[in-house]
Amino acid sequence: MRSVFFPHLVNGPFGDPALYVRLAHRGEALLFDCGDLHPLSMRELLKVSAVFVSHAHIDHMVGFDALLRAFLCQNARLMVCGPPGIIGQIEGRLRGYTWNLVAGYTFTLTVREWGEDKMRQVNFRAANAFCPEGEKTLKRGEGVLFETLACRVRGVPLDHGDIVSMAYVLEEPLHVAIHKDALERYGFRPGPWLTGFKDRVRRGDLQGTVEVPLEAGGTVTMPLDELVGKIAHCERGMKIGYVTDASPTGTNRERIVALAADAHLLAIEAAFSHRELARARERGHLTAQMAGELALRARAAKLLVFHHSPRYREWPELLFEEAHRAFAGEKKD
């Protein structure tokens, strides 16, 4: 399977949590948590279409103002999804600034707040000085917070001490694989038309025709269902799990395993060594060993650990190695 999600940790395993995921052929990206975003270029920031906040501790939200500053003068919309209380927290951030010169701005920020049964959604328009408006309640089927033809994001609430920290999974609903050798065989020229072709297949819209550009010049009109049979096949889509700031409880662990089941990548916190399990429990975090064990139980293909406590900076490989030993199924000492 060719990757359609390209994730990277903005600040490495010891810095503020922020996982930037570029969506192939879409010109857009998703952001999981919003720690320090200075390492991202303006071009990268403006590709973000939605942000998924685990909780509002400062190391997970400090980059919000930088993102807001980048989007403020843009004719764009930005979605922020988060745990209970996120609407009020975003409103509080926006109220901290003076907005007397933004009447002509068209930027809109939409905030969705997870709830047990439904989601709340509120808009904040720059032209209205970011006053909350248009509040509505949305159904939240199977934990889905955000969905497009190319991807969807589901969330589950985890306990982080006495607050909720959301864990997320990014899924490609259906992977439409294009056979390059078939394109060459039929003389079809690859290009942006393939994105629209894939979207129609994902919708199940196999009626009608497609204008296919040819390497020799010009186009050929083909029935969509015939074209699918010639150049593509469908399979299970990619899946990336994101988990951070989770108390090491049995309930949390079961929810993580269920959410991340068969993920192609599980990005998960590994704050402390398992030798410091008591401290991990006190601080409401997972140990590196737990991270590896959870990835193994979830049958994840790859493991990415982050959110290491700074107390391990002198031993930067310790938590990585502990997590990956557990992920490989090695027995504990």
Description:
- With 333 residues, the chain is of the alpha/beta class.
- The protein has 2 domains: 5-173 and 237-327, Ribonuclease Z/Hydroxyacylglutathione hydrolase-like (Metallo-beta-lactamase, Chain A), CATH 3.60.15; 175-235, no CATH class.
- The chain has 11 helices and 18 strands.
- It has helices at 42-46, 58-61, 64-71, 86-95, 180-186, 193-203, 224-231, 250-259, 277-283, 288-297, 318-327, and strands spanning 5-9, 19-23, 28-32, 48-52, 77-82, 108-113, 118-125, 132-139, 144-147, 152-160, 163-171, 175-178, 209-213, 219-223, 232-235, 239-243, 265-269, 303-306.
- Helix 10 (288-297) runs parallel beside helix 11 (318-327).
- The mean pLDDT is 94.
Q: From the 3D structure, determine the CATH topology of the largest domain.
A: Metallo-beta-lactamase, Chain A
Calculate the terminal CA-CA distance, rounded to whole Å.
37 Å
Kindly give the count of domains.
Answer: 2
Number of helices: 11
Strand order of the main beta sheet, please? 1-2-3-4-5-6-7-8
How does the major sheet shape up?
8 strands, mixed
Superfamily at the CATH H level of the largest domain? Ribonuclease Z/Hydroxyacylglutathione hydrolase-like
Low confidence ranges: none
Shape verdict: globular
Compute the gyration radius: what is it? 22 Å
CATH architecture annotation of the largest domain? 4-Layer Sandwich
The total beta strand count reads 18
Helix content: 25-40%
Which class of the largest domain in CATH terms? Answer: Alpha Beta
Which structural class fits the helix and strand makeup? alpha/beta
Overall mean pLDDT stands at 94
Relative strand content:
25-35%
Instruction: Give the SSE order as H and E letters.
Output: EEEHEHHEHEEEEEEEHHEEHEEHEHHEH
